[in-house]
Amino acid sequence: MDPPAHDIVATAADFLWSQSLLSSIESFTANHLEMFGGSAELHGEHRLEWTQAHKDFSELFDVQLEAFVATQPFTREEFVSACERALEEGAAERTAPDSPEAFRARIVETVLMATTYEYFVQAMLDAAASAEARMASRPGEEGQPDGTEMAVLQPTPSAGDLGGAE
User: Which long-range CB contacts under 8 A does 34-38 form with residues at least 24 apart?
Assistant: First the structure.
């Protein structure tokens, strides 16, 4: 018997907030922040190197996603289907943003948006601006951003928030 869609999405939350994925994202961000520095917005001119950075990020995320799915009792296709259902269910719950359905939809949006170019660039621009502001507020201190500026993922919710299996 296939696991219910909400169980799949709840399990995905564990993956999204895993130390392994968070460390990978932080490292990637730290290594790529400089190329996004000084650029104020997504709608301006895009640098060609941003496309390659997005491709590299997508590959990093995909490798981690494949490894996660390989350890689960569901296939990648079932995972994608569960994500699509969670988005549909969550869309109907936008008037109740604290509902489990809306929360699962936000988790899925994070996964889907993290792999789209526009979201990626905006997140990197925001991270670079945050790092620049933090460095400017500490005059005389040398140092490099550590990558923790990229807030793609949110803190780990409780199991009750997910509405998943206990």
Answer: 34/128, 36/121, 36/124, 36/125, 36/127, 36/128, 37/128, 37/131, 37/132, 38/128, 38/132
Q: CA-to-CA distance for 92 and 105, rounded, in angstroms?
A: 10
The sign of the CA dihedral 123, 129, 135, 138 is negative
CA distance 69 to 135: 39
Q: Structure tokens of 140?
A: 């005389």
Quick: pLDDT tens for 64-119.
888 888 999 988 888 878 877 777 776 655 556 567 666 666 666 666 666 788 88
DSSP helix/strand/coil, 108: helix
Using DSSP, state whether 130 is helix, strand or coil.
helix
Backbone angles phi, psi at 42, to 5 degrees: -70, -30
- Residues 30 and 24: their CA atoms lie apart, in Å, by 10
Residue closest to 148 by CA, chosen among 56, 28, 57, 38: 28
User: Beta strands of 45-145 (E only): which ranges?
Assistant: none
Mean pLDDT value across residues 45-64: 88
Please list, in sequence order, all residues whose beta carbon lies within 8 angstroms of the beta carbon of residue 137, skipping any fewer than 6 positions away.
none
Q: What percent of the chain has pLDDT over 70?
A: 63
